[in-house]
Amino acid sequence: KPILIPILGDQLTRSLASLKGRSKDESVILMMEVWDEATYVKHHKQKIALIFSAMRHFAVDLRDAGWTVDYTFLTDEENAHSFTGEVARAVERHDPSAIHITEASEWRVQQAIDQWQDKFACEVRVLPDDRFICSIGQFRDWAEGRKTLRMENFYQEMRKQTGLLMDDGKPAGGQWNYDKENRKPPKDGLKAPPRPRSEPDEITAEVIALVEDKFADHFGDLDTLKWPVTAAQAETAAEAFFNERLPEFGAYQDAMVHGQDDLFHSMLSTSINLGLLDPMELCQRAEREYREGNAPLNSVEGFIRQIIGWREYVRGFYWFHMPDLESTNALNAQRALPDFYWTGKTDMRCMADAIRSTKQNAHSHHIQRLMLLGNFALLAGINPRDVQDWFLVVYADAFEWVELPNVAAMALYADGGKLASKPYAASANYINKMSDYCKGCKYSASTKTGEGACPFNALYWHFMDRHRDTLESNHRIGRIYSNWDRMGEERQADYIESADRFLETLEPAKKGWARYQD
Ligand code: FAD
Ligand code: DLZ
C-alpha cells in the first residue's frame, strides 16, 4: 500500500518535510485544485493563475523526478472541491497505508486537516513545516510568559540561532539593526533596474484562460501576470535582485515613487510563500554579498531582518494568537471600506497609485501597504474585517498567516498593541517626505485643514483625538498630545470638522468584491 502525500498550493518545494525520506516507489503525491480554496475570498485573478500555474509546473517537475503525482484539475467532473473531499476520493483510489502531510500554513486549512484522523481509517501524520526557521512550538515557548512580544527581541534570537551576520557571537558591524539607515527619501528621478519578467508558457496560458472563464468577476488584471511559476524562474528573479538591486535595497526600503512599482524591493514574496525559493538560502546568499563586499550592511541586514525577523515573527504571532486574531478590533473601528480601494478612483495621488499597482501587479511594496493603504484605513477607522478581506484578496503573496498579522496587528493596531509598540499612524508630512506623490497631487500636503488640504492631515488628528484614552499613556506616542493641546479649541475643532466632512464623502464599497456571499 502506498503512502498518500497531499501537497498544498503553497508547499511547492522538493525538499518538503512530507517528501523527505520517502521512497518514490511507495508514495503517491496528491495535488488538488479546488473551488473552496479558489473562492473562500475572491482572490485577485493573478493570484489564482499564479498558484494554479505553479502547482501544475511543480507536478510536472515531480513527475520528471520520478514521483507518482495524482493531480485534480479544477474542471475535473468528479472534483469534490475541498481538500478533505479530494483526499477522501484519493483514499478510495489508492487505499493508502498512511497519509503524510506537511502542516498547513493557514489555521483554516489546518483545522480541516485535524479532522482527517477521525475520518480516514489509515494513519494521518502531520509534519512540521521546516521551511520556517522557527517552529510554531518554538515561538510559543519564546512568547509564553512575556509581557510584550517585540520583533526586535525575537529577531536577535533568530540571528543567534542561524548565525546569520554574526561575528564571534556579536552582530556584524556592532549593531543588530540598521533600520535608521533604511529610510532615505527618494531623490528626483529615482529608478531601479527592471526585474526579469517570466513570460507565460503553455501551462500558464491555459491557466489564464481558465481564470478568465471561471473567475471573470474577480478583482485585478490578468494580462500583466509575470510572476515566477517555477523554481528556476524564481531563481532567475533572485539572481537579478542580488546582482542589481540589493545594494540600494536598504537605503530606499521606505521610499515611494509614483509609477515605480518595484523600486529596489526583491519582489520575491510570492516565490518564497509558494515554496519556490528557500528563505534561509536567500538570507545566506544575501550575507555572502555583504562578506564579499558587493552590498552594504544596511541593505543586507535589512533584507535578512525582513525574512528571519518580520516574516518568522508574524508567522509565529499568527499561530500564537489564532483564532482570536481574526476578530480582534481593539479600537472598535466600524466604518465600511471605501469603494475607492477597489476602483482606485480617488484624488489622493498616493492611494490611487498604490491601488493601480495592486490591480495591475497583484503587488504593492511594504511601505505602500503599511503607510498608505493601512495607514488610511487606521486613521479613517475602517473595520478590520473589511480591511483584512481586501488585503487577502488583492495581493498575489497573500496567505492568511502573513496577511492577518500584518493587517490586523501591524497596520490597524486592532490587537491593541500585542505586535507593535504603537500604531503606524502618519499625516501627509511623512508621505511627502518619503515619496514624490504630493508634488502632482490635487491635495496640498502642507495645508492642514479645509479646501484642498491633504485628507491624511485632518484624519491623523481625528484619529489621535478619538483614541486619546487608549494612546495617551503610550510612551512612544503620548507626547504628541501636548502639541494637540497647544493648538487650542478653535484649531482642534477645525481639524475635527475637516476630517468629518471628508469621512462623509467616502462611499462604502459595493457588495461582492471580496466574497461571493457578501
Ligand atoms: P521585500 O521588501 O523585498 O522584502 C523581502 C522579503 O521579506 C519579502 O519577500 C517577504 O518575504 C519578507 N517580508 C518583508 N516584510 C515582511 C512582513 N512585514 N511580514 C512578513 N514578511 C515580510 N507579505 C506577504 O508575503 N503576504 C501578505 O499578504 C502581506 N500582507 C501585508 C499587509 C500589510 C498591511 C503589510 C504592512 C505588509 C504585508 N506583507 C505581506 C509584508 C510585505 O509588505 C511584503 O512581504 C512585501 O511587500 C513583498 O514584496 P517583496 O518581496 O518585494 O519584499
Ligand atoms: C490560494 C489557493 C488557491 C486560490 N487555490 C488553491 C488550490 O486550488 N489548491 C491548493 O492546494 N491551494 C490553493 N490555494 C492555497 C490554499 O488556499 C492555502 O493557502 C494553503 O493550502 C495553505 O494553507
Automatic annotation (TrEMBL):
An example Gene Ontology molecular-function term: lyase activity
**UniProt-listed InterPro entries:** Crypto/Photolyase_FAD-like_sf, PhrB-like, Rossmann-like_a/b/a_fold, UV-DNA_repair_photolyase
- Give the region (Disordered) as residue ranges: 167-199
- Extract the SUPFAM superfamilies matched here: Cryptochrome/photolyase FAD-binding domain (SSF48173)
Which key words tag this protein in UniProt?
A: Lyase
Q: Name one Pfam family in it.
A: DPRP
Would I find Lyase among this entry's keywords? yes
Task: Indicate, by first and last residue, each region the UniProt record lists as having compositional bias (Basic and acidic residues).
Answer: 178-199
**PANTHER family xref list:** SLR1343 PROTEIN
Q: What is this protein called?
A: Cryptochrome/photolyase family protein
